[in-house]
Model the fold of this input.
Amino acid sequence: MFTKVLFSFFVSAGTSVLNNIEKRYIVLCGLCGALTAFLYDFSENFVSPVMASLISCFLLATVCQFLSFKTKRPDTSFIIPGIMPVVPGSLVFRAFDALAESSYMKALDYGTQAIMVGVSIALALVFNETMTTLFISIKHKAIK
Done:
């Protein structure tokens, strides 16, 4: 698990370099990816991989909202490198590999898993953004 978290740090930091993030934020982007990998591995022991990606991406988005507030940068600067460890690229590869081998049931299984993980990532990000907007509007109404 430690090696996966370590390499997730480097993958996320490398992704932030490719996305032209400023040098002083590269370590934060790497830490977001390492956090996501750790949360995914930890929660995968208790729930399915789809729920594990939902939980890890929701918590990642929460941390990225906080970092966005503190650094005055858009939260996508941290979210995009941070989700790299849970993107279902290997499942898509396995699905196409099974298609090439004419193993259609395996391809359907891998493809369905990839779609479900991708949808759970999107749902986590949308749910977090909705909750943040809701809390901000409640805060503004309480101040008035």
Q: What stands out?
A: The CA atoms of residues 96 and 107 lie 7 Å apart. The mean pLDDT is 91.
